[in-house]
Amino acid sequence: MKSNGEYLDFEETIKAIDERIAELLKESSQHGIDYSAEIRKLQQLQIIELQQIYSNLTAWQTVQVARHPQRPILGDYLNLMVKDFRQLHGDRCFGDDPAIICGTGHIGREKFLVIGQNKGRDTKEKIKCNFGCPNPEGYRKALAKMKFAEKFNIPVVTLIDTPGAYPGIGAEERGQARAIAVNLMEMSRLRVPIICIVIGEGGSGGALGIGVGDRMAMLEFAYCSVISPEGCAAILWRNGSEAQKAAEALKLTSKDLFKLKLMDKIISEPLGGAHRNIYETIFNVKKYIIKTIKELKSLSAETLVKNRYQKLRLIGTKAVLY
């Protein structure tokens, strides 16, 4: 299995195996000794270790995987999943928020409006887009483009990956809370299919601002929560170091949310997480979108809106919280 060079604190055994494989490959190259049998055994052992670790992740470990620096972000999905992507800019009010990207393109044979939160890959890009924390103009931009999609009967896909909406003074002055609230209302009655997928972090209202739709799915090791574990720990225990305890209490993993009927689908990730095989991860997301849009396109606009309303009204009524 290919190593990405970034190991989480619970992956020490995986790191040791990768380092030993690298040593054997180096010795084989330098001295011409065949270590293929030993390498195969180590690779098999690595698979067993990964299966054991990733089948028993704690909530806090899941958060760490969702935040992995090599995890595929919006740009990877746009490059590998969306053909002929044409970006649409601006909210016609204040500016063009780089933390939310909107544009049209084809996924499979279907044309979509794709909206996603952009975290950035390198330091310069991360700073430019506030590490994926959108400003109100980002949410207004997203809504304006969704209205455009509704006018031309184009289905919408949103890819959610944010720690939360940007909490700066400027964002509050420009109406952060209202921008998100308006999006919740307008998305609930948009007359085209909406598919929402949490691909990494689904943080609070920042995620909900583009997270109302006919189908809500999330990747296996993504998380979705009303607040970050660190923020929750700081409020409840006055100590951010209690984040691990908070993560368990928040029920933020895909398994927890599916059990509570807040998610419609868990999209599987490759063994060891999305960062170990970006291509397989994006293929799984693409397959889910293509399958789901076939189901949604068979419904009339009136039925879509009616079902979406009922879906939202039923949240919490059938879930066993404790």
Word description of this protein:
There is one protein chain. The chain has 322 residues and is an alpha/beta fold. The chain has two domains: 45 residues, no CATH class; 251 residues, 2-enoyl-CoA Hydratase, Chain A, domain 1. Strands 1, 2, 3, 4, 5, 6, 7 and 8 form an eight-stranded mixed β-sheet that branches. The two termini are 40 Å apart. The relative contact order is 0.12.
Provide key terms for this protein.
2-enoyl-CoA Hydratase, Chain A, domain 1; eight-stranded mixed sheet; 322 residues; 2 domains; 16% strand; 14 helices; alpha/beta; 8 strands
Overall pLDDT level: 92
**Which structural class best describes the helix and strand composition?**
alpha/beta
Beta fraction of the residues?
A: 15-25%
Per DSSP E runs of 2 or more residues, the count of β-strands stands at 8
Indicate the topology.
Elements: H1 12-31, H2 36-54, H3 59-66, H4 74-81, E1 83-88, E2 100-107, E3 110-117, H5 123-128, H6 136-151, E4 156-162, H7 169-173, H8 176-188, E5 194-203, H9 204-208, E6 215-219, E7 223-225, H10 229-236, H11 243-250, H12 254-259, E8 265-267, H13 278-297, H14 301-313
Parallel strand pairs: 3-4, 4-5, 5-6, 5-7, 6-8
Antiparallel strand pairs: 1-2, 2-3
